[in-house]
Amino acid sequence: MTLMKRRHFLQALAGAPLAATLPAFAADTPQRLLVLVYLHGGNDGYNTWVPYTDSLYYRVRPNIAVPRDAVLKVTDKQGFHPSMAPLVPLLESRELAVVQGIGLPGVSQQHYRDTEMAFTACDLEEYRTEGWVTRALARRALEEWAMADAVAFDLLDIRESDPMGPMRGQRQRVVQVHHAHELLAKRRISDCVIDANPRGRERLARGGDTLATVTLRTSFPTDPFGQAVRAAVELASVDRGIPVIHLALNGLDGDKHHSVDCHYDQLKYHGNALQRLSEGLVALRSGLREIGRWDETLVATYDEFGRSPMENEKQGTHHGQATTHFVMGGRVKGGLYGEAPPVIRVHEIGGPEPVIDTRRLWATVVERWWSADASGLFARRYAPLDLLSA
């Protein structure tokens, strides 16, 4: 499927009208950048942000609970999974916000529908054809000379029709580079793109999509997520007009069940996924600081749902609801927001409802980060979170 998608893309690109080659970047005031990090499959917030003093947590997770002595304690009730040690200094320096109890209320707990909800920021009974990022970008000025309005690395969507994730729709220029290591080697986006929407193909056909060599002191992880982080930093350095870069955390073999979607053998995969996530985020911060863009970048993790507090019979976790996510950046007012989801006895699928609607975070991006109008963007008005400095 990957080869077929690339072949179709190249055929479409070859047939597009060519214009004069454009510069890779311009000296205009840089866009405020949003980096979205998709935890593909739904992360287990309970083993990420651990309720280490809750005895029920250990009773309902007899095999997979994080041992109390191993938790990196942050408060007198909560702490990080030990694999997330790299993030502790960012929390201490108040560059990392821990958003507790976040999620979309009323999810179906089925990947296909809930992924659509996550990408479009809609309610269960509501259907939209455009992603929330597509709608949001339509409300702000974009740079015509930029290589794209959004570049995605690795997995983007589970749909074959218009698989553009939160950037789905035809209004913005969206391109997807599946393998970041290819772009780091070939240095030209159109040589590495696996898919693009029509406006994205049209923009690449105009040229000016070559990445100049970027010399960095930052050490990046060598796994696919780490390589995507490096590619994102280099892209942010070369083209300061791109407003959105999308990353995805997946299994090392491309199987989401070997990452955070741990229905079975969670101890085998989840800690490694959290370590790769943490090391990648720390490298992202270091790289963005090195190129002078840390204060211009907002980073946010998201997924379609959390996990149930209950361990299942295969020593994993099924789908849940409320979870914990992370927001970081040079202008983030770090600390704790919301309330950690309580541990409750439920069916193996399910869990407590979120106390923070994910759309409050996206309203924060639109109104507080991009200084755009979010009215009418969602089905109802959502108050932004107070987690950004001026």
From TrEMBL:
Using the record, list the residue span of the signal peptide; answer none if the entry has no such feature.
Answer: 1-26
InterPro entries recorded: DUF1501, TAT_signal
**Coiled-coil regions in this chain?**
none
Write the record's keywords in alphabetical order, separated by commas: Signal
Protein name, please?
Tat (Twin-arginine translocation) pathway signal sequence
Q: From what organism does this protein derive?
A: Usitatibacter palustris
